[in-house]
Hints:
The protein is α+β, with helices and mostly antiparallel strands. 53% of the residues lie in helices and 18% in strands.
Amino acid sequence: MKIKTWLLLSYFIVMILPLLAAYLLLGWINSYNDEQKVAEHIEVTTQLEEIKQTLDRPGLYTPGGNKEEAEKLAGQSLSIALYNRDGLVIYTSSPSFASPHYGLGKEHLYEDLYTLEQGYRAYTYKQPVFENNDLAGFFHVQIGREAWVEGVENRGYFVGAVFLLVFGLIYITVIWMVNKKLNIPLTGLMNNMSAFAKGQPVDEKPVKNDEVGKVTEQFYDMSREIIAAREAVEQEQQAKEYLIASVSHDLKTPLTSIKTYAESLKADNDLTPDEQNDYRNVIVEKADFMQHMLDDLLTYTLLQSGENDMEFVQVDGNEFFDMLTADYEPLSKQKSIKLHVYSDVQGMYSVNPKQMMRVADNLVSNAIAHTPETGEIRLAAVSDRSTLADMLFDFIPEKEVLSETDAVYFMVQNEGKGISPEKLAFVFDPLYQADEARSKNDKSGTGLGLSITKQIIEKHGGKVQIFSRKNVGTCVICSLPAMKEEGIPNE
Length: 491
């Protein structure tokens, strides 16, 4: 139950309880009155007849009349007042009922004669007394209702006790509910917030579907997001530290070689011209490798930055991918590798030409580096999935890989040793290489190529998948969405 609804309901119960108790008391009194009415009326009527026989005597209303019988008749439950014909009090058994110093005016004296009036605490009756058709006086009696009043009071006490009991139970229940629905959850929330601020773990507990529960759930979500963000920052920081350490190590080796060969050229005059030329070539190769690594590092850093927006241009798919897959034949022939190139792309695409050329260079360079001599490489860019399916290794799940429609598939597939399954999941991590040794000789890469490729393709709205089998080969497939409207990729 929502706290607002619960508070309104509690307020309603507390407000209605006194009214309900008053209604029950009134109903009970009326019921008791109805039960006692007939019996009490008969009893009072009988008593009144006896009173009349005693007081309906003219001699009582003379100034010197004997009032002993009236005095004997009066008691705790019966009050008697005798008036003369002019309304002056000549006898009263109770000054609170009729003061001996005051009388009744004609209007009040003749009011409600012969009428038995029922009051809350007593019945009253007034009657004139005649002597030979002459008015002698009046008697006025009050018959108490002690039994009835006592019964009403007892019931009032009982209802009051029940009211207090119920009110106490409601009060205790409200306190318990407030503690359960507000104090305990809010205290738990404050403790969790204090613990979270101190870096301690948050004790998440099931929450209820009320306002405090929603606030608590939002705090849990926020804490999880902050913890995930902290972990991401820590991982990013660790990755940066690892990247810096790896790059420093990888740059140290070629730099040492450059320094050593440069010092040898400067200090050793006994070197033959051929040796000097070899030393110069080594220095140039190491410098080229360092420049290539720094270029990759700069590209990787820019791609990681959220502020670096990649610029896209609209290109014709057939023309662009024909250009992208060309000019790799000389590199393959240097290693006696047979290169199969196929390009058949339809539609318009939004790309960054420079970055897509870097993707092609990275993938083809990796394929050439890991393909043995006389091996084969397939380089293809197609928009017809059935055409590409015929080129893939038989261990590649075609339906899963070629699931995109209105897309171009850029594939680089090479024969070779392949990559083991336990290492395949990490090949897109920066500076990771599947080779056991990470030595940076002139034939190895920087370890950033596949990571850069993945980021470039994803910024194009596409995805990269890699498949490999030991002693068979490796296949990398990139998919890019076609444009459904001018300037908008078909995602």
